[in-house]
């Protein structure tokens, strides 16, 4: 074995048999930090200057090739030299052939690194991609200029605009050799090196490939531009991605690179890029919980029980079956159990029909699911999740029964969305084993999992559940106990103000239009109809003593439910629905109810601006988030953002409600809250007092992200 001529913490270089082997090993993902960029450029230049090397092979010692740029450097660009484009230019202009061995995923800058090489080899099970659009930017190291020179325009556009990973088998123009699997890569590289040397193959710079904009390509770009504008409203980067790829066809390579750099910087300066990059870090930060005992060890979860085989219980069970964990479902009646299992089977079969699962996978997952009507059959489970009716007496009865039959060390979890977890825990002899696992509906689809820490929940139970969230492909966020925890506590003022605005003269369709234009997937009235207006009604019934001081509180929604208008499931709620359709149809009779209630309460109806609607609905939600932070229910504002993006569809291009507030400016939020507090009578006094944390941060010129 040849000695390493360069052996740094991130790169090694050895030369033998005419081959210079450069191996990247910057754990964990070969992020292209300054250290790795310097290492690569030094190794390439060394190999180019060494007469013993006729071919350069660039590979990775890690399971992946490279995950791309080190985006932590985006916040400090004072010491970035050499930039990645400089590194790639050295490789591409090398006078010796450079072969990239893409042994695993190559994303973003990692793929751009491979594209700058003269030859590329990978295996058929690998995927690569340019996901920069998810960070609100575009590939900035030549990806938009090199990829179109190797694949057809539509493939390049699809990869760059969507950011989706692409199988290398669809990129045969990119890869000169694709072996069957990773175990064959070494032999494939040896054969490729021999061919290059023996045949005297020269360097093959991608930059020297010319592109022509013919009529069909012009038509493709026109069609794509229109489609992107329609499908990615609110996002800035996708449109610029199209412009950058188009530049590859319209400009010489060097000028195309300059145009790409210009478009990249335009993206970087947007609020969307700041928001999307904030969210990238927020999602990763959510899994890091401070203050837990270092000696606490996560428990093994090998078998799970779910209490309740309804829609929520069934969805929860599917999460575990999907990753190979056996689940026993408990219902009081066999008919309910059979129905629940049947619905799960139907869901899996529908996935199979769509090609998302094979029939064998359906059978394997169903084999992991069993049912019982006897609590005694839960004696060997490691975790039990209760998903029964949202009523304290029912929850406590279930937990009392579980306490008697579950083994010591079993975790007892509640899927409650609003109730006091500490009171639930008191119905057991082991409150340290009780935790909240609040799944969002549909539980087998939604990525968010609110993990609720009770007063006595042990650190090892918390660690277990945070780890388990990843295992079942959820984003777990740890929160404390209060009414509604984080998500549902903050959605309360959102819905409350929407209802109040209708009393004051806004229409449901106006309110919904404002919020969907902002970026929400649906407005509050449509959301209420989809979930069922009766659900909110039942929650209000349980909290009448807390809202009694406001006689206008969701009074129109109450009247609608009392008239049987509970939403989509019965064809009428805030809107009307035709049979088999989810399209909301405005109903003048709802406005008449609002008018009657407004007259009864002495509220004068008026024309309300879109801006007032946006402020009245979003700012109290943000204000509630500030209280949640101050109370320690959430430990950092970015956790709230993760909950709202993944649990409630808050637009990721705004980063979440707290990041959005930081962008607007906390002084502005505070001033508008104060305005409504002072100018909207009793309603303003009841609901618009600025949070003391909002006041404090605004006065200091700080943001929510500064709160620690």
How would you characterize the overall build of this protein?
This protein is an alpha/beta fold and 708 residues long. The protein folds into 4 domains: 4-266, Alpha-Beta Complex (2-enoyl-CoA Hydratase, Chain A, domain 1), CATH 3.90.226; 304-479, NAD(P)-binding Rossmann-like Domain (Rossmann fold), CATH 3.40.50.720; 482-608, N-(1-d-carboxylethyl)-l-norvaline Dehydrogenase, domain 2 (Orthogonal Bundle), CATH 1.10.1040; 610-708, Orthogonal Bundle (N-(1-d-carboxylethyl)-l-norvaline Dehydrogenase, domain 2). Helices cover 48% and strands 11% of the residues. It is built from 29 helices and 18 strands. The strands form 3 sheets. An 8-stranded mixed beta sheet has the order 13-12-11-14-15-16-17-18. Helix 15 (421-425) links the parallel strand 15 (411-414) and strand 16. The longest helix has 22 residues, at 610-631. It is globular, with a radius of gyration of 29 Å.
In short:
With 708 residues, this protein is α/β, with parallel strands linked by helices. The two termini are 52 Å apart.
């Amino acid at each position: 074995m040849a000695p390493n001529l360069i052996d740094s913490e991130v790169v090694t270089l050895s030369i033998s048999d005419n081959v210079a082997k450069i191996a990247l090993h910057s754990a964990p993902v070969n992020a292209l930090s300054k250290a790795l960029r310097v290492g690569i450029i030094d190794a390439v230049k060394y190999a180019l200057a060494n007469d013993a090397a006729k071919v350069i092979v660039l590979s990775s010692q890690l399971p992946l090739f490279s995950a791309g740029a080190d985006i932590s450097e985006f916040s400090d660009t004072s010491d970035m030299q050499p930039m990645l484009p400089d590194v790639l230019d050295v490789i591409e202009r090398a006078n010796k052939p450079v072969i990239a061995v893409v042994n695993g995923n190559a994303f973003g800058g990692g793929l751009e690194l491979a594209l700058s090489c003269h030859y590329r080899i990978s295996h058929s099970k690998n995927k690569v991609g340019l996901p920069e659009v998810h960070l609100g930017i575009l590939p900035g190291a030549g990806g938009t200029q090199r990829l179109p020179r190797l694949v057809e325009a539509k493939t390049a556009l699809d990869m760059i605009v969507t950011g989706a990973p692409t199988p290398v088998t669809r990129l045969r123009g990119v890869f000169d050799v694709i072996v069957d699997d990773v175990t064959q890569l070494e032999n494939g590289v040896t054969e490729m090196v021999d061919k290059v040397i023996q045949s005297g193959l020269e360097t093959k710079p991608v930059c020297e490939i010319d592109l022509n904009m013919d009529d069909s390509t012009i038509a493709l770009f026109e069609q794509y531009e229109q489609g992107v504008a329609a499908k990615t409203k609110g996002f800035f980067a996708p449109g610029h991605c199209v412009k950058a790829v188009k530049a590859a066809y319209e400009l010489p390579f060097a000028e195309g690179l300059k145009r790409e750099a210009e478009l990249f910087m335009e993206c970087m300066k947007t609020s969307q890029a700041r928001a999307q990059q904030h969210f990238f870090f927020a999602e990763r930060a959510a899994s890091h919980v401070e203050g837990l005992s270092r000696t606490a060890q996560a428990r093994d979860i090998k078998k799970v029980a779910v209490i309740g085989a309804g829609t929520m219980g069934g969805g929860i069970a599917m999460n575990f079956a999907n990753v190979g964990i056996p689940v026993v479902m408990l219902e009081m009646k066999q008919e309910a159990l059979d129905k629940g299992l049947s619905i799960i089977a139907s869901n899996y079969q529908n996935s199979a029909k769509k090609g998302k699962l094979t029939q064998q996978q359906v059978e394997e997952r169903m084999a992991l699911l069993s049912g019982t009507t006897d609590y005694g059959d839960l004696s060997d489970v490691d975790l039990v999740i209760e998903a029964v009716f949202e009523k304290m007496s029912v929850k406590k009865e279930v937990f009392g029964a579980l306490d008697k039959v579950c083994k010591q060390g079993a975790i007892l979890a509640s899927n409650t969305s609003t109730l006091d977890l500490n009171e639930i825990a008191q119905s057991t002899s082991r409150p340290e084993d009780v935790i909240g696992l609040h799944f969002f509906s549909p539980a087998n689809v939604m990525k968010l999992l609110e993990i609720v820490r009770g007063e006595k929940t042990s650190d090892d139970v918390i660690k277990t559940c945070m780890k388990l969230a990843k295992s079942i492909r959820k984003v777990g966020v740890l929160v404390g106990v209060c009414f509604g925890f984080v998500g549902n506590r903050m959605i309360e003022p959102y819905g409350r103000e929407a209802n109040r605005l209708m009393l004051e003269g806004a229409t449901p369709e106006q309110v919904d239009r404002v919020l969907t234009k902002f970026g929400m997937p649906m407005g509050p009235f449509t959301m209420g109809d989809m979930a069922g207006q009766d659900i909110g009604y039942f929650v209000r019934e349980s909290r009448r003593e807390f809202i009694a001081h406001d006689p206008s509180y969701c009074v129109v929604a109450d009247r609608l439910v009392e008239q049987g208008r509970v939403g989509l499931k019965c064809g009428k709620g805030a809107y009307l629905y035709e049979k088999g359709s989810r399209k909301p149809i405005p109903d003048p009779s709802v406005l008449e109810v609002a008018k009657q209630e407004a007259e009864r309460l002495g509220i004068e109806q008026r024309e309300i601006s879109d801006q007032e609607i946006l402020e009245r609905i979003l700012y109290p939600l943000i204000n509630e988030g500030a209280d949640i932070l101050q109370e320690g229910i959430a430990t950092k504002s970015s956790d709230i953002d993760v909950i709202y993006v993944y649990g409630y569809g808050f637009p990721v291009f705004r980063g979440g409600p707290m990041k959005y507030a930081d962008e607007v400016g906390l002084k502005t939020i505070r001033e508008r809250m104060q305005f409504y507090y002072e100018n909207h009578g009793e309603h303003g006094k009841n609901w618009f007092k600025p949070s003391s944390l909002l006041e404090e941060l605004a006065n200091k010129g700080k943001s929510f992200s500064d709160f620690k």
